[in-house]
Amino acid sequence: MRRFVSAAPGTKQVVDRFIAGETVDQVVPIVEDAVGKGLEVTLDVVGEDITTVEQSHAARDAYLELIDRLKDLGFGEKAEMSVKLSMFGQALEGGHELALANVRPVVEAAAAIGTTVTLDAEDHTTLDSMFAIHDELRKDFPQTGCVIQAYLFRTEDDARRLAANGSRVRIVKGAYKEPAEVAYQDKAEIDKAYVRILKILMDGEGYPMIGSHDPRLIAITQELARRAGRKLDEYEFQMLYGIRSEEHLRLAAEGHRMRVYTAYGTDWYGYFMRRLAEKPANLLFFGRSILTK
Ligand code: FDA
């Protein structure tokens, strides 16, 4: 499947909608353009589920190369990084320690240029390790963020803990196929859980980052922030590059902090397939574009 999708003639055109480029040189002008328009970014070097220790070192080096370029641009926290620990070898034998050892220099380098890193949430089996790494990194770099997923039953408890300890937390609906034993399956149930978690975050001590394109959740966020007495710089919205771009600009123009999750790199397969799965129309469009080439 991976080989077929990667080689299909119409793939590139559809991938380009969601992936900002393959190299640091290609993504830097996109960051400059976004910041020039009043947006902020979180940069993701695509990649996940690596199988060798060397690939973990390569992941570290790819982020260090990016940070080295960002240093000269002086965007500070306007350009932060998102990382997937499975790209740092979390699933390998001894992978928890390996991922921590290789992500730490990235967090350190980010802090040295005045910015930070957020740990993405992957499938539910990885989360205890992700939260433990997050706690460990926060001892030296308290601004390190993490992601929680509204579809998981465990997340309200995670949100309470993170909100009480003052963490930066991105809340998303969740993008992995999870079993009914651990996650809500019904969209309306997920949305309700999202709102309950939003309340916990807004009423807590931390910095909520609202990762969603859902207009209803955006309106609810604004209302909950108002009720919690939060100023515009005490939370932020986040959306994905290539999705509802007009809305990015509208919220920024209203004075909100709007951060665009900007993925780039060559190992885009997993990221791209999750974007296709989120919206049936994307699959139809993709199917048409490979058939008509
Ligand atoms: P929903 O899926 O209901 O979409 C609302 C509307 O947004 C749709 O009607 C459509 O208009 C538009 N839209 C949404 N997705 C689209 C798509 N793929 N293509 C075209 N239009 C689309 N997940 C995870 O498990 N771990 C993580 O670490 C992250 N990180 C992350 C960061 C950021 C900044 C965002 C915005 C999202 C994530 N996600 C994630 C993904 C998240 O879990 C979820 O799958 C998507 O955001 C889609 O959910 P929405 O909240 O946008 O609502």
TrEMBL record:
<dbReference type="InterPro" id="IPR029041">
    <property type="entry name" value="FAD-linked_oxidoreductase-like"/>
</dbReference>
<keyword id="KW-0560">Oxidoreductase</keyword>
<keyword id="KW-0547">Nucleotide-binding</keyword>
<dbReference type="InterPro" id="IPR002872">
    <property type="entry name" value="Proline_DH_dom"/>
</dbReference>
<keyword id="KW-0274">FAD</keyword>
<feature type="binding site">
    <location>
        <begin position="173"/>
        <end position="175"/>
    </location>
    <ligand>
        <name>FAD</name>
    </ligand>
</feature>
<feature type="binding site">
    <location>
        <position position="187"/>
    </location>
    <ligand>
        <name>FAD</name>
    </ligand>
</feature>
<dbReference type="InterPro" id="IPR008219">
    <property type="entry name" value="PRODH_bac_arc"/>
</dbReference>
<feature type="binding site">
    <location>
        <begin position="212"/>
        <end position="213"/>
    </location>
    <ligand>
        <name>FAD</name>
    </ligand>
</feature>
<dbReference type="InterPro" id="IPR015659">
    <property type="entry name" value="Proline_oxidase"/>
</dbReference>
<keyword id="KW-0285">Flavoprotein</keyword>
<comment type="pathway">
    <text>Amino-acid degradation; L-proline degradation into L-glutamate; L-glutamate from L-proline: step 1/2.</text>
</comment>
<feature type="binding site">
    <location>
        <position position="149"/>
    </location>
    <ligand>
        <name>FAD</name>
    </ligand>
</feature>
<keyword id="KW-0642">Proline metabolism</keyword>
<feature type="domain" description="Proline dehydrogenase">
    <location>
        <begin position="35"/>
        <end position="284"/>
    </location>
</feature>
<protein>
    <recommendedName>
        <fullName>proline dehydrogenase</fullName>
        <ecNumber>1.5.5.2</ecNumber>
    </recommendedName>
</protein>
<dbReference type="GO" id="GO:0004657">
    <property type="term" value="F:proline dehydrogenase activity"/>
</dbReference>
<feature type="binding site">
    <location>
        <position position="275"/>
    </location>
    <ligand>
        <name>substrate</name>
    </ligand>
</feature>
<dbReference type="GO" id="GO:0010133">
    <property type="term" value="P:L-proline catabolic process to L-glutamate"/>
</dbReference>
<dbReference type="GO" id="GO:0000166">
    <property type="term" value="F:nucleotide binding"/>
</dbReference>
<dbReference type="Pfam" id="PF01619">
    <property type="entry name" value="Pro_dh"/>
</dbReference>
<feature type="binding site">
    <location>
        <position position="84"/>
    </location>
    <ligand>
        <name>substrate</name>
    </ligand>
</feature>
<feature type="binding site">
    <location>
        <position position="274"/>
    </location>
    <ligand>
        <name>substrate</name>
    </ligand>
</feature>
